[in-house]
Amino acid sequence: MSASPPQAAPTRLRRTGALTxxxxxxxxxxxxxxxxxxxxxxxxxxxxxxxxxxxxxxxxAHLDTIADFWSSMLLGSGRYKGRPMPKHFALxxxxxxxxxxxxxxxxxxxxxxxxxxxxxxxxxxxxxxxNSFRLNIRLHRGDDLVHLEPLEREELPxxxxxxxxx
Length: 166
Fold this sequence. Notes:
mainly alpha, 6 helices, 56% helix, Globin-like
């Protein structure tokens, strides 16, 4: 009788310190998530989508899931275990204008909160995610993707903070 070979430990890619900008941590990710989704829920275009898809009593759990997603993506924490596409497939009202606005608000948020190198990392990843979601949703709907152009960036007007007069 021979002993069974040892089981290999599951492998998982982890970000190393050299790839993670100094200052990027869980607290910063959480600040970005909280600020971005507060803006998104109030936005005239994408706010109704979020408010309809995620009821108030599930909002905090949604924020926690999104923070886990970004932590896994940027820090390699591995906390996110979800499958986001099926939930997004169910959002029949979203189109290119929604993706452009999501990305514009996200860029605004990370540029407001993060140092430039960390903002650039968030922006690069968010654009990958946004374009991937867009393509997958369009494919799921049966759209012809052969001539689909990349999204153009939406530039938002400068924000006026409450109490500022111009």
